[in-house]
Specification:
This protein has two domains: 11-79, no CATH class; 91-184, Rossmann fold (3-Layer(aba) Sandwich). It has six helices and eight strands. The chain has helices spanning 29-34, 41-53, 63-71, 116-121, 137-143, 155-162; strands at residues 22-24, 57-60, 77-79, 103-107, 127-131, 148-151, 167-169, 182-184. Helix 3 (63-71) links the parallel strand 2 (57-60) and strand 3 (77-79).
């Protein structure tokens, strides 16, 4: 009969940093691991709980995730509210893109692990727009000629494009449940 306790590691491997350190909990690794290999979620949570215990504070993005982790025995949790710079991101500064609506936009590195091929292959009304650059860009431009690739944008130019009313799609199935699936703006 298999053990119900997580495997133990040498204690020196768990020292997070100095006496004052911060950690962030952004991905549901226990669920990710359990979906791929036969490792009980409880084991992964035990490992993560021990790792995060070394931090002065573990930052989480939502109150519901904070409550869930507290219920799983995590201590010293803090809320990390990923705010928006309202001076930079203003709807009245939106650029005009003469494209069929709705706009579906992906923002980030153009690489295989981002699963952009799944997004670009979707049968959607309107237009698909990709903001970013990366090693898979040339291939995806060739394979999906109807998609609009705007390249690397930053600062006020990026903010003006993000001020549009569009559907932001981030189809990274590997992070299902971690806050990174699909966001409608």
């Amino acid at each position: 009969m298999p053990s119900t306790s997580p495997p133990r590691a040498r204690s020196g491997t768990w020292r997070a940093a100095t006496a004052s350190s911060r950690a962030c909990y952004t991905t549901r690794f226990p669920e990710y691991i359990a979906a791929r290999v036969p490792v009980p979620e409880a084991w992964s949570y035990a490992v993560l709980r021990r790792f995060h215990a070394a931090a002065t504070v573990t930052m989480v993005s939502t109150a519901s995730l904070m409550a869930e982790l507290a219920g799983r025995g995590f201590k010293h949790l803090g809320l990390w509210t990923r705010g928006v710079d309202t001076e930079l991101f203003r709807p009245e500064r939106a650029v005009h893109l003469d494209l069929p609506r709705p706009l579906f936009v992906s923002v980030g590195r153009i690489a295989v692990e981002k699963n952009l091929e799944a997004f670009l292959a979707l049968d959607l009304p309107g237009s698909k727009v990709v903001i970013g650059e990366g090693p898979q860009e040339a291939e995806l431009r060739r394979r999906f000629p109807d998609a609009i690739f705007l390249g690397h944008l930053e600062g006020e130019v990026l903010a003006a494009h993000l001020a549009l009313r569009w559907q932001n799609t981030h189809l990274l199935e590997q992070l299902r449940g971690g806050g990174d699936i699909a966001h409608a703006v």
